[in-house]
């Protein structure tokens, strides 16, 4: 029995390691090829791009399993996600601010340059996304955790909308 437990534990570690690889790989791919990582100073932009992409992948990547767990009635995952997500979200916002400041030399560049206009569109999508996430965290999640069964469908729909709004952020770069 202990051999099976040891094998299961190792398999679980391997599975977790394999699940992290694409997450980290997405950050590495954009560090090596993304336009923002090529801006000077690269000692600042490359780590910022990595953190930005990895944190966004964590956030969006956690939503589908979280929705599945909510549909299965497992509210513990929501509590864990709500407790942990502020950290990657803070890193996501901080790295985004760093990248914007590095690439814009002045505030009016937000509306006077092509890059600034694209960034303004991205910021509008980010504001909508953060508003949606805040509604989920501070309005719908507490009601769900408080036993309000009527909010479950609303919470899963709004959580499913987060990646779609996030997609608008990505569309602005293409």
Q: Label the overall shape.
A: globular
What is the SS-derived class? mainly alpha
Distance N to C terminus: 54 Å
Query: What summary fits the major beta sheet?
Result: none
Q: What average pLDDT do the residues reach?
A: 81
Radius of gyration, taken over Cα atoms and rounded to an integer in Å: 19 Å
- Uncertain runs: 1-7
Percentage of β-strand residues: under 5%
Description of the structure:
- Residues 1-7 have low confidence and may be disordered.
- With 174 residues, the protein is an all-alpha fold.
- Helix 1 (2-33) crosses helix 2 (42-71), helix 2 packs antiparallel against helix 7 and helix 6 (114-145) runs antiparallel to helix 7 (152-171).
- 83% of the residues lie in helices and 0% in strands.
- It has 7 helices and no strands.
- The protein starts with a helix and ends with a helix.
Secondary-structure map:
Blueprint: H1 2-33, H2 42-71, H3 76-84, H4 86-103, H5 109-112, H6 114-145, H7 152-171
Helix pairs in contact: 1-2, 2-4, 2-7, 6-7
Descriptive labels:
174 residues, mainly alpha, 0% strand, single chain
Short recap of the structure:
The chain is mainly alpha-helical. The protein has helices at residues 2-33, 42-71, 76-84, 86-103, 109-112, 114-145, 152-171.
């Amino acid at each position: 029995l202990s051999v099976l437990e040891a094998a299961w534990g190792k398999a679980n570690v391997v599975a977790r390691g394999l699940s992290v690889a694409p997450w980290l790989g997405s950050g590495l791919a954009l560090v090596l090829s993304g336009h923002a990582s090529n801006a000077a100073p690269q000692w600042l932009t490359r780590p910022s791009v990595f953190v930005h992409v990895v944190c966004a992948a964590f956030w969006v990547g956690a939503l589908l399993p979280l929705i599945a767990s909510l549909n299965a009635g497992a509210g513990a995952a929501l509590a864990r996600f709500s407790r942990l997500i502020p950290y990657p979200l803070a890193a996501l916002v901080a790295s985004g601010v760093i990248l914007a400041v590095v690439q814009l030399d002045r505030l009016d560049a937000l509306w006077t340059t092509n890059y600034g206009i694209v960034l303004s569109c991205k910021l509008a999508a980010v504001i909508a996304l953060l508003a949606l996430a805040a509604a989920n965290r501070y309005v719908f999640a507490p009601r769900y955790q408080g036993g309000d069964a009527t909010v479950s469908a609303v919470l899963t729909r709004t959580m499913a909308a987060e990646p779609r709004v996030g997609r608008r952020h990505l569309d602005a770069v293409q």
